[in-house]
Write a structure and sequence with these properties.
The complex is a heterodimer.
Chain A: E1 5-7, E2 10-13, E3 19-24, E4 31-37, E5 43-50, E6 53-57, E7 64-68, E8 74-78, E9 87-94, E10 106-107, E11 111-115
Parallel strand pairs in A: 2-11
Antiparallel strand pairs in A: 1-3, 3-8, 4-5, 4-9, 5-6, 7-8, 9-10, 9-11
Chain B: E1 3-5, E2 10-14, E3 19-21, E4 24-26, E5 32-39, E6 46-52, E7 60-61, E8 64-69, E9 74-79, E10 88-96, E11 107-109, E12 113-118
Parallel strand pairs in B: 2-12
Antiparallel strand pairs in B: 1-4, 3-9, 5-6, 5-10, 7-8, 8-9, 10-11, 10-12
The chains are: A mainly beta, B mainly beta.
Chain lengths: 116, 119
């Protein structure tokens, strides 16, 4: 158990709809990352938040948005869904402090989104 | 921007044998971290091993070891005494060590190598 919790685990929806994926990071971790993994593909970085503020942005579509709340949980909002948005969406967290010597990201189990 | 390349889409190994997975990366930074993650059929991302670029000694974790060649920007993973449970997708990943950079913290992943273990 990585300590990162993602909900829902599975989600099936129709094109044009909007969904929200939720992530609770490990206790004490201030940084949250969202990744997208399409079928048999690598992980594509979407966005990173650190203590409530956006820190880095990857190839995230304009139809997608995210935020990190004061309690450090994060939500990824996907709107106007298309068939190509079907993927596994991972949330990860890390300590990201100056004294953090490990650098590793701790991943949740992912949210599998299917757009029909 | 940093890139990570895994040139072997698929590899296979016999149980109890040794296999090496390749990874190369491109960066202009001198301070960084490298990782190998394992993704079994459950799709969970599991850290296998990490290497700090400033360390000359290759990292080792039980049956897993790396061959880190900083000048060549190469970071291969060796799995010894392969077990059926090692079958998975393996991802190589890069993380910047530049705390002031905008990419600090995030991992850049390669495309992955599917490892099959034959009994």
């Amino acid at each position: 158990d990585s300590g990162v919790t993602q909900t829902p685990k599975h989600l099936i929806t129709a094109t044009g709809q909007r969904v929200t994926l939720r992530c609770s990071p490990r206790s004490g971790d201030l940084s949250v990352y969202w990744y997208q993994q399409s079928l048999d593909q690598g992980l594509q970085f979407l966005i990173q938040y650190y203590n409530g503020e956006e820190r880095a942005k990857g190839n995230i579509l304009e139809r997608f948005s995210a935020q990190q709340f004061p309690d450090l949980h994060s939500e990824l909002n996907l709107s106007s869904l298309e068939l190509g948005d079907s993927a596994l969406y991972f949330c990860a967290s890390s300590a990201l402090l100056a004294r953090d010597a490990t650098g590793e990201l701790f991943f949740g189990e992912g949210s599998r989104l299917t757009v029909l | 921007a940093q890139t990570v390349t895994q040139s072997q889409p698929e590899m296979s190994v016999q149980e109890a044998e040794t296999v090496t997975l390749s990874c190369t990366y491109d960066t202009s930074e001198s301070d960084y971290y490298l990782f190998w993650y394992k993704q079994p059929p459950s799709r969970q991302m599991i850290l296998v091993i990490r290497q700090e670029a400033y360390k000359q000694q290759n990292a080792t974790e039980n049956r897993f070891s790396v061959n880190f060649q900083k000048a060549a920007k190469s970071f291969s993973l060796k799995i010894s005494d392969s077990q059926l449970g090692d079958a998975a997708m393996y991802f190589c990943a890069y993380r910047s060590g530049n705390a002031g950079g905008t990419s600090y913290g995030k991992l850049t992943f390669g495309q992955g190598t599917i490892l099959t273990v034959h009994p």
